[in-house]
Design goal:
By secondary structure, the protein is an alpha/beta fold. The longest helix is centred in the last third of the chain and has 10 residues. The chain is globular.
Length: about 140
């Protein structure tokens, strides 16, 4: 199974604190616990997540919406929910080295500070219960 992971890294060396403003992402393609490829994704200024979240254009898509997981050291809750709607799982982590973060992710030892934060709402994030989050008990469909 392939998993595509994007890591926010403005200087392409360490993990960046502001995913929304970040224009450089390292994209890892992981296939059965092996990193198949690693490439740099450079966004145009109007493709950043910050801009994506403020555009009224419903057809807006960021290349980041194609990934499965986004790793960053800082991101706003609104953005997390926006990504969740595109089926992107977002994790805030303390790790600063991209390769180490990927290594830990594969081994299952990556510490996420906040996988997805729902404390403000009763989970109306409409995320379809993405991987690893059991939202079943929150959805009451009448």
């Amino acid at each position: 199974m392939k998993t595509v992971v994007a890591i926010a890294s403005q200087n392409k060396k360490i993990i960046f604190e502001h995913a929304g403003k970040c224009r450089n992402f390292i994209i890892y393609t992981i296939n059965d616990d092996i990193v198949e490829s690693k490439k740099i994704l450079e966004l145009e200024k109007d493709e950043t997540l910050h801009n994506a979240s403020h555009t009224e254009n419903k057809t807006f898509t960021s290349t980041l919406f194609d990934v499965d997981i986004l790793l960053t050291r800082g991101i706003g809750n609104g953005l997390i929910q926006k990504l969740a709607r595109q089926n992107v799982a977002c994790y805030k982590i303390e790790e600063t080295d991209p390769d180490t973060a990927i290594d830990k992710l594969i081994k299952g030892t990556l510490e996420a500070v906040a996988p997805v934060s729902h404390e403000k709402s009763g989970c109306n994030c409409n995320c379809g219960g993405g991987q690893g989050h059991n939202h079943g008990q929150h959805h009451h469909h009448h």
